[in-house]
Amino acid sequence: MLRSLGMGASLCVLLASQPIFAAEPEQCKVVRMAEPGWNDLAFTTGVTSVLLDALGYKPASSLLGINVIYESLKNNDLDVFLGYWDPAMITYYEPYKKDGSVDDVRVNLVGAKYTFAVPTYVWEAGVKDFSDLQKFADKFGRKMYGIEPGSNQLMMDAIADKSLGLDGWQVVESSEAGMLSEVGYEIKEKRFIVFQGWAPHPMNTMYDFKYLSGGDKFYGPNFGAATVTTQVRKGYLQQCPNVGQLLKNLAFDIDFENLGMGYLINDGMKPEEAGLKAVKENPDRLGAWLAGVTTFDGKPALDAVKQQLGL
Question: Residue ranges of the chain with pLDDT lower than 70?
Answer without folding.
Answer: 1-22
